[in-house]
């Protein structure tokens, strides 16, 4: 496999340099995963547009999806990044471990979401009937289901990018489970 080195701002296109500048302002740095999208002229901008699109899901719900999918795919980069983001959104370390395992005992609605997402991710989109029924019984609707799939797709993209090019993790380390 060709060795991938995370590109610097000076090594990417002018368009991507502008995106790097915006990321530096918003996040304080350019995460290595985002920088790696900049190998492509268009991927970083397209990905950020997709990732930041409107959703019926709340921030905490998106983080549940991000953490569960990343755990199923064993993506240490995304687990590290989304653990940090989940903490910003108010989850504790113990809750985050439970979410990663899809064993959410502190919120029944988030539990139904985590179980469904785990079933989707493990079964390549073919969630169990029980998981799907529990999701709807918890108060979610068909629109929420479609939005869940968008977040699953978003996270699958980044999990796979990390798996393919082994991006160095630039977020605080998280424990394996």
UniProtKB/TrEMBL annotation:
Ranges where the Carboxymuconolactone decarboxylase-like domain occurs: 50-100
Pfam families for the chain: CMD
InterPro entries for this protein: AhpD-like (IPR029032), AhpD_core (IPR004675), CMD-like (IPR003779)
SUPFAM superfamilies the UniProt entry points to: AhpD-like
GO molecular function, one term: peroxiredoxin activity
Full protein name: Carboxymuconolactone decarboxylase family protein
UniProt organism field: Flavobacterium rakeshii
């Amino acid at each position: 496999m060709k060795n991938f080195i995370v590109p610097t701002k000076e090594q990417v296109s002018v368009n991507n340099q502008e995106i790097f500048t915006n990321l530096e302002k918003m996040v304080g740095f350019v995460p290595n995963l985002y920088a790696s999208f900049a190998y492509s002229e268009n991927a970083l901008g397209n990905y950020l547009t997709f990732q930041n699109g409107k959703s019926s899901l709340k921030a905490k719900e998106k983080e549940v999806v991000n953490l569960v999918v990343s755990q199923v795919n064993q993506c240490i980069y995304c687990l590290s990044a989304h653990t940090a983001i989940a903490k910003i959104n108010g989850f504790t370390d113990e809750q985050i471990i439970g979410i990663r395992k899809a064993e959410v005992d502190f919120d029944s609605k988030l539990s139904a979401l985590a179980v469904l997402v785990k079933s989707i991710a493990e079964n390549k989109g073919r969630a169990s009937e029980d998981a799907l029924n529990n999701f709807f019984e918890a108060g979610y609707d068909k629109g929420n289901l479609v939005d869940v799939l968008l977040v699953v797709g978003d996270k699958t993209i980044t999990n796979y990018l990390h798996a393919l090019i082994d991006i160095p993790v630039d977020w605080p380390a998280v424990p394996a489970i």
